[in-house]
Design brief:
Layout lengths: L21 E7 L2 E6 L4 E5 L8 H21 L7 E13 L2 E14 L4 H21 L1 H7 L13
Antiparallel strand pairs: 1-2, 2-3, 4-5
Length: 156
């Protein structure tokens, strides 16, 4: 449930300051709404309309997380004139069930001319690699194949 801490957590790596949660509520057939602990909401759909599907939200989370990392590092040197992170992958169904393969995030970033822009350009590739290898919680979780427990809450 949103706001409750899990019963069993490795003490060395988790705690109240690292706990994250949200709830997804059914609004109607094929329509849902995610609500975070700060009260923000995000509509979710099944692909029948313009709402983002859960797979699209996962892709957005990966690209968004990496974008935050890359922007944080590079903008210390120069604000980008433009930044787009495009993500793609293939949804497959095989002996492992349904999942995504061939995930790829491609950054298209433009920095201003001059010394500050040159400094930002010089750390761009490294910042992308740092996001991929250790900073982006979302892509790291996918890459490390974290198990997901799913169970009934005990309520009707």
């Amino acid at each position: 449930m949103v706001g409750e801490e899990p019963d069993k957590t490795p003490a060395a790596t988790t705690g109240a300051d690292t706990y994250r949660s949200l709830a997804v509520r059914r609004l109607g057939k094929g329509r849902y709404e995610a609500t975070n602990v700060r009260g923000g909401t995000l509509p979710i759909g099944t692909g029948e309309d313009t709402q983002f599907t859960p797979v699209e939200l996962l892709l957005a989370a990966i690209a968004g997380c990496a974008s935050v990392d890359v922007d944080h590092i590079t903008s210390k040197r120069a604000e980008p004139a433009a930044m787009v992170a495009a993500i793609s992958g293939n949804k497959v169904r095989d002996e492992h069930g349904s999942h995504l393969v061939n995930l790829r995030v491609e950054f298209d970033v433009t920095f201003p001319e001059g010394e500050a822009g040159d400094a930002a350009r010089s750390v761009l590739q490294r910042s992308i690699e740092q996001s991929r290898d250790r900073l982006c919680t979302v892509s790291r979780t996918v890459a490390l194949e974290s198990p997901v427990a799913m169970e009934q809450s005990g309520r009707d």
